[in-house]
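Below is how a single chain appears once it has passed through the pipeline. First comes the sequence as given, then the structure the pipeline wrote out for it. We keep one example in the README because the format questions we get most often are answered faster by looking than by reading.
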Amino acid sequence: MHVSERLLQLYATLDRQTRDIVQQRIETNLADGKSLAASYHELTGETNDSLSDEEKSATDFSNWLKDGKTELDLLTYYVALLEKSEMLQSEGALPQTVKPTPQSIAEPVVSKPVMEPSPEETMEPEAETPVDPTPTKPRYVPESTIPSRTERMKSHREIKPARPRRNKGRGWLIGLIAIILISVGGYAAYPMISDLFEPSSTPTVTEEPITPEPEPVAETKALEEVWIGVKNAPLVSEPASEDVVYVADIGDRYDVIEERDDALLLDLGLNELTGWVSRDEVVTEWTAASINDADVLDWLSTSVNQTLFDESPETYFGMDENELVGNVGAASGFDSDALHEYLVYSGLFFTMKNEQVEAIDWSNTDQTKETFLELGEPTYETEDGVVYESDTYSLRLFVGEDDSTRVRLTKLNQ
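Resulting structure:
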């Protein structure tokens, strides 16, 4: 059983005077500030390993009561002392002083690595040998020797006289015949040569490469809404935070604002309040109505306590606090959280949202999970919770760790 659910049960069984005495004893004990575990030991003489060692003061506790009891450490501490209310009311419980032993935590010394210069940084650049850019000018070498006068005279004496001119008539005839033959051969070969240079009249078909169509990629649809799939799911301010904003119940439906890894940001539907929940604690599909409205109302009339009501329970939905008190009387207790106010009566409590009745819970009923499932096929079921939904109502069963049961009736689409 979640600690918030246990608080509601205690408020339904303890009167206001008892709760005030417990709160006064707590504020007196926490006046100078101490850990919650030590305070519990001083007030009860017992130890509780589930309590925090964080130091709290009376001011912290008073502010916590005013702010809606959202901090889990103080909530666990307060519920544990409410369960010991009979002991705290008696004067036999004497305060005991607990002196915590300080512990020293030695921090390891981390040595800083020494950076050595790389081999390239330690090498000195080699000296370069200068190169003379001016080449050596070669000495003049004559290309050839100048002939002497005697050699020139000898060359002059060796010149032979010119030969007589030949008759060129036969050569002219041979040239004319060659020209004629070349012209005839060129005329005959022209068609074949022109075909080599003219483009072909047959059109060339260029095949374009076929580009394969991309395979369709399955699109992942973004989540729009989810339902709580566990008995109680704490909604926190950040995915890795322990700051609980609200505790949602099995079957609650919320719109999804953002997805981040394994966490979802949910819209709580009031005053722009949001909270993160693990994907493992929600379901994304919800079946249709499994029973009808008449089945729900008939089961309530015979299965839960109706002594407080003059009319059928569904007639109280939408009433404000004044109307409710006028019909069933003043509440014996009052509580609240980030979303709701609770009016507590003997054996049941009303949940108010936006100043109107949203749900009715019957605590410590005689119902079991087996008898509850006789209604038919449920809309959703877990080991410690069952949900039935009709067109108008949501009927749920919560099973506690001690097999105690709580029944809730909620009107949908309010």
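Confidence is low (pLDDT under 50) at residues 92-144.

See the next section for the split statistics.
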